[in-house]
Amino acid sequence: MTPTLVRQHLPHAGATPRVDLRARARDWSEIQERMLVPLYEAVYERLDVDGGTRMLGLGCGSGLALLMAASRGASVTGVDSGSPERLGLARQRLLPEAWDTRARADARVVEGAPREARDPAAGFTLVTAFEPIGCLAGDAEGLGELLAEATPLAERGAAVVLAGWGPPERCATTSVLRVATKLADPLRSAGSWRPALRDDLEEVAQRAGLRPDGSGRVACPFGYAGIDSAVRGLLSTGLFDAAIAATDPEQVDKELAEALHPHRRQDGTVWMPNVFRYLIARTP
Question: pTM for the full model?
């Protein structure tokens, strides 16, 4: 998704040559991705995702959101152009040979642009863009480009779900993310962190010609086994890639660890309450 929350998922503002992309993908899928499970669950409950749902997941990354929809019976298609390593993990999770006979679902994972995920049999009834925007300069524009390609693949009146970071004062992780701004090259704004704005999602939907049809907020705390786990998880989001490019990985690791210490509990775990927003819109 151009610069994205990981761009991974939160994945890949264009990873630098010094990043081990396979390790990054594993850290995302094993540590960070689960932090957004409450968001996925809230949306699926609200929209009654079930066996009649045909879902297109934009920026699907390693596929946890798709897996959760498939477990409810939905037919799912994931598409991503940012991380072949993450898509490889999504295929392991979703393709038929990975399912037992009780949990088999219709699933596809496509590398490339949304248009390559077209289903010739029927339009999609649900389009999701779960990679939260509102933390990287240019991420709203990138999402708009994805929607311009994706919404023609959906049925008329289909739900389109956009996700974003909540108000900075409601997100404890904001103080840690400011490390990315401090270390990034100030002359290169693309891919650098910026505070979420109140109307980020609504503005994207309006530019895409979508009709708002409800919204919500979901608590998504970031919890880690320790500082090392937290550093690895947060780096996997891609939000610190610009800082890595402008300085070096060791400096980013050091300052990120220091920023996490106020959130370390007595047992050594790290806990940061956050709130994420979602907007439900409808195709014309």
Answer: 0.88
CA distances from 199 to 3, 70, 128, 187, 190 (A): 19, 31, 18, 26, 20
Which run of H or E residues covers position 108?
strand 107-111
> Which residue stretches of the chain are H helix?
21-27, 37-47, 64-71, 84-94, 139-150, 174-183, 200-207, 227-235, 241-246, 249-260
In sequence order, which residues have a C-beta less than 8 Å from that of residue 105 and are 6 or more positions away? 70, 71, 73, 74, 75, 76, 94, 99
Task: Give mean pLDDT, residues 18-33.
Answer: 92
Please say if the pLDDT value at position 223 is more than 80. Answer: yes
Q: Which two tokens stand for residue 119?
A: 């289903």
Dihedral (CA of 223, 228, 232, 237) sign: positive
Residue with tokens 């890949």: 12
pLDDT by residue (tens digit) across 152-209?
Answer: 999 999 999 999 999 989 999 999 998 887 787 654 555 555 666 678 899 999 999 9
Q: Vertex 208, ends 203 and 209: CA angle to 5°?
A: 100
Distance between CA atoms of residues 26 and 32, nearest Å:
9
By the 8 A CB rule, do 127 and 150 touch? yes
Helices 64-71 and 84-94: angle between axes, nearest 10 degrees: 20
Q: Which two tokens stand for residue 103?
A: 């949990």
Q: Which domains does the chain have, with CATH numbers?
A: 21-169+189-222+273-282 (3.40.50.150)
With contact defined as beta carbons under 8 Å apart, do 111 and 84 qualify?
Answer: yes
- Kindly give the interhelix angle for 200-207 and 139-150, rounded to the nearest 10 degrees: 40
Least confident of 45-49, 140-144, 200-204, 224-228: 140-144
CA–CA distance, 268 with 255 (Å, rounded to integer): 18
